[in-house]
Amino acid sequence: MAAPYRSGRQLLLLLVPLLRAVEPHSQPGWPVPYRRFDYRPKSDPYCQARYTFCPTGSPIPIMKDEDVIEVYRLQAPVWEFKYGGLLGHLKIMHDAVGFRSSLTGRNYTMEWYELFQLGNCTFPHLRPNIDAPFWCNQGAACFYEGIDDAHWKENGTLILMTAITGIMFNQMAKWVKYDNDTGIYYETWTVRASPDQQSVVWFESYECSKFVLRTYQKLSDLGAVFNNIQTNYTTITLFSGEPIYLGNETSIFGPPGNRTMAEALRDFYSPFKPPRAVKEFFWNLLKIIDRVILQQRFYLFYNLEYWFLPMKSPYIKITYEEIPLPNRNKSGFGL
Ligand SMILES: *[C@@H]1O[C@H](CO)[C@@H](O)[C@H](O)[C@H]1NC(C)=O
Ligand SMILES: *[C@@H]1O[C@H](CO)[C@@H](O)[C@H](O)[C@H]1NC(C)=O
Ligand SMILES: *[C@@H]1O[C@H](CO)[C@@H](O)[C@H](O)[C@H]1NC(C)=O
Ligand SMILES: *[C@@H]1O[C@H](CO)[C@@H](O)[C@H](O)[C@H]1NC(C)=O
Ligand SMILES: *[C@@H]1O[C@H](CO)[C@@H](O)[C@H](O)[C@H]1NC(C)=O
Ligand SMILES: *[C@@H]1O[C@H](CO)[C@@H](O)[C@H](O)[C@H]1NC(C)=O
Ligand SMILES: *[C@@H]1O[C@H](CO)[C@@H](O)[C@H](O)[C@H]1NC(C)=O
Ligand SMILES: *[C@@H]1O[C@H](CO)[C@@H](O)[C@H](O)[C@H]1NC(C)=O
């Protein structure tokens, strides 16, 4: 369709009154930006990982400038899910990135995941004598030597995406450090107004696939040119009307807090103890869906703040959809 305006200036003039009209309401920008912190705090000793986070992790090596590093897309089903009959059919995938140095022949895996597993990132603990729900919800990047080909290939994906120089790899490593030090908390849910692709996104999740997407974007910014492949990711989405801001831990559960609201929050979370097993996670998920559909309420914890979500149909959806690779129209170093 032809552009209805002859010049950008005319368009701008037309927009000015619109912008003015919108200003006084000062709506929060949607989606609510994911908050970055100055540094990563030590996790509370109450939070004890059942499986050590990143057991074979190593610092990211410095590559020689002239090295050629192959970059792989790695994706595999979260295998424990196959034990929940219904859930085996869902495409719930974990994402990672692989690297292989041509000079040394060594390869590496890089991923981002929960320090205390998915359940702890999705449901808080209600502790005796502590009013506020207690969260063990940190996530972090993990880098280790080796790529377990069989694990990724057999029921998932191991595919070459691009090749980069050692210089680009080293620059990426600096960015990973920044990203890992400032993006601290795992966010399970995407929240949007409706399943319509054009609908408003209220909150973006922050989990393994988002880290992989940021890494691809960083590599693209550094000049990487990706092969033409389709890249799908798992998203768990909640559907709600416009979220209502409630406050943070101090303002809700502290002395000046509204007791009714504090009780409503505790009550909402009470059936959902962080599960000890993946199976339990899904039981809790089903319980939460039941509550959410019957009562059309959900309390979201995002950026360490609480929001009320007026839930609406279809309430929750797990999708496996394409998020395309960054534009490949840059000239750069690639295969
Ligand atoms: C979740 O956190 C609790 C409390 O620290 C801990 O006991 C449990 O092991 C954690 N779950 C997993 C799977 O790490
Ligand atoms: C990210 O931070 C965590 C927690 O401090 C640390 O264990 C991990 O090694 C870091 N990852 C990388 C790739 O540096
Ligand atoms: C990574 O290295 C291991 C050990 O040498 C090898 O078995 C595997 O095939 C390599 N994978 C890739 C994708 O380079
Ligand atoms: C791939 O899926 C099959 C069938 O469900 C399973 O038996 C096998 O263990 C899976 N492979 C890996 C590497 O997990
Ligand atoms: C919590 O909210 C209150 C009131 O909005 C604010 O003054 C305080 O700085 C917040 N606390 C944290 C830890 O963000
Ligand atoms: C306290 O919270 C409840 C439930 O969110 C709300 O209905 C009530 O108006 C609040 N009270 C005050 C004084 O803000
Ligand atoms: C990948 O995503 C595209 C578009 O979002 C979809 O049409 C396709 O069916 C998905 N592939 C799989 C294997 O689900
Ligand atoms: C792709 O090329 C167009 C035209 O040169 C440019 O405007 C656009 O910003 C490029 N996209 C990216 C992601 O670089």
Please tell me about this protein's structure.
This protein is of the alpha+beta class and 335 residues long. It has one domain (64-322). It is built from 8 helices and 11 strands. The protein has helices spanning 8-22, 117-122, 149-155, 166-182, 208-221, 249-253, 259-269, 278-295; strands spanning 68-77, 93-101, 107-114, 139-145, 157-165, 190-192, 201-203, 232-240, 244-248, 297-302, 305-322. Strands 6, 7, 8, 9, 10 and 11 form a 6-stranded mixed sheet that branches. A 5-stranded antiparallel sheet has the order 4-3-2-1-5. A hairpin with a 5-residue loop joins strand 2 and strand 3 (107-114). The radius of gyration is 22 Å and the shape is globular. The protein binds 2-acetamido-2-deoxy-beta-D-glucopyranose (8 copies). One 2-acetamido-2-deoxy-beta-D-glucopyranose (NAG) is lined by residues 247-248, 250-251.
